[in-house]
């Protein structure tokens, strides 16, 4: 199996400055490569430049600018160019599929937060020796940075990534050959139904409360955003210290909600994996569920539109996104694989309209959270019926 470990870095003041310069120079390289692709397509008879062309120019770029580009790892710069190439491949794939293309954009320094090292030992070295109580990671151009390693690393370290989140720096280790750790068999089987009133409901009737982390922090976030909006728009170098603190406060609240959502998803998934050998869940199309309803033109009045329920649908969309179903299902799949549990996705169509007693399918069986079969009269909670 492949697993990722994320640890907090403890850089010194000089190392923190060097890490920021590393992100800045890799961002500059990515933007320069993007500009070259744009210019070649526009002015050179729609010529396409590939990753191979740009990777071959790295030696000349490093020799021309040794202070900014020559000091960093060659492999990490190749990984940055490869990320840009993948973005273009995804763009052309969406164009062919008729989806919204999303052309790759230039990245500002604050929007470029990760540098990847494709191989441990090439420009970086994960140094975790048993006899040394202090763990370090060696990065070319930065030095040996202390790592707050809160758990052992299992498997073989394959790639190393360094990322920034606000004022904190993290190292992410992607490891392969990680052995599974099967849990003792319980002989229990369950199905789960995702919802917004309750986060999930099992087929045994147990409910897991929805923490609604985004809603609980909405007032504080709105206040912080209003304070940030009060500042006039200025260039980054002209911003005041108060403006920077306002930006950091908004970003910190977003990180808080994300971490609360992750924490709840991990705990709920672990509880299911420990209690059940087989788990079935809905195969949800979350992107389609939160899609904005199409406008309804009024046939009798040109330029006017009929009510389409967009306001109420927007509230439901916020609740679905706040619940974080996609994050939870991904974590559940990872924990089930590690514990040797069986996870089965099921087509969700008519699951909450089908009577578990007689099998009768009818849209009138469900009325909100209540379920009553129109054929046999069976009554139950609608979420439990779906589970």
How many β-strand stretches? 17
Strand adjacency order, main sheet: 2-6-7-1-5-4-3
Q: Shape, please?
A: globular
Computed Rg: 26 Å
Estimate the strand proportion.
15-25%
SSE-based structural type: alpha+beta
Low-confidence stretches: none
Mean pLDDT: 91
Count up the helices: 11
Kindly give the count of domains: 2
For the termini, the CA-CA separation is: 29 Å
Helix content: 40-55%
Main sheet overview: 7 strands, antiparallel
Give the helices and strands as they follow along the chain.
Answer: EHHHHEEEEEEEEEHHHEHEEHHEEEEH
What does this 3D model show about the protein?
This protein has 11 helices and 17 strands. It is of the alpha+beta class. Strand 6 (156-165) and strand 7 form a beta hairpin. Helix 1 (13-43) crosses helix 4 (74-97). The longest helix is centred in the middle third of the chain and has 35 residues, at 241-275. The model has no long low-confidence stretch (mean pLDDT 91).
């Amino acid at each position: 199996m492949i697993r990722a470990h994320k640890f907090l870095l403890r850089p010194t003041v000089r190392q923190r400055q060097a890490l920021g310069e590393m992100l800045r120079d890799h961002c500059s390289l990515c933007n320069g490569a993007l500009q070259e692709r744009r210019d070649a397509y526009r002015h050179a008879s729609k010529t396409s430049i590939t990753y191979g062309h740009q990777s071959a120019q790295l030696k000349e770029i490093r020799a021309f600018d040794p202070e900014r580009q020559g000091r960093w790892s060659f492999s990490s710069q190749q990984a940055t160019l490869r990320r840009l190439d993948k973005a273009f491949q995804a763009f052309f794939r969406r164009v062919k599929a008729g989806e919204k293309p999303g052309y790759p954009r230039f990245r500002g320094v604050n929007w470029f937060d990760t540098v990847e090292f494709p191989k441990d030992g090439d420009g970086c070295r994960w140094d975790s020796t048993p006899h040394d109580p202090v763990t370090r990671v060696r990065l070319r151009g930065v030095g040996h940075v202390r790592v707050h390693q809160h758990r052992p690393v299992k498997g073989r370290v394959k790639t190393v990534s360094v990322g920034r989140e606000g004022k904190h720096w993290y190292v992410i280790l992607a490891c392969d050959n990680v052995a599974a750790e099967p849990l003792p068999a319980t002989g229990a089987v369950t199905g789960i139904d995702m919802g917004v009133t309750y986060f999930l409901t099992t087929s045994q009737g147990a409910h897991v409360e929805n923490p609604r982390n985004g809603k609980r922090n909405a007032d504080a976030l709105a206040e912080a955003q209003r304070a940030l909006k009060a500042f006039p728009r200025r260039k980054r170098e002209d911003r005041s210290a108060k403006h920077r603190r306002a930006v950091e406060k908004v970003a910190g609240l977003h990180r808080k909600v994300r971490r609360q959502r992750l924490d709840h998803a991990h705990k709920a998934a672990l509880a299911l994996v420990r209690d059940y050998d087989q788990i079935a869940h809905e195969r949800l199309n979350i992107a389609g569920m939160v899609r904005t309803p199409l406008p309804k033109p009024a046939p009798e009045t040109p330029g006017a539109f009929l009510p389409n329920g967009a306001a109420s649908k927007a509230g439901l969309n916020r609740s679905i996104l706040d619940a974080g179903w996609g994050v939870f299902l991904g974590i559940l799949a990872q924990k089930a694989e590690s514990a040797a549990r069986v996870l089965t996705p099921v087509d969700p169509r008519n699951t909450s309209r089908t009577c578990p007693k007689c099998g009768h399918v009818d849209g009138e069986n469900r009325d909100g959270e209540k379920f009553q079969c129109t054929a046999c009269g069976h009554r139950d909670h609608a979420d439990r019926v779906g589970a």
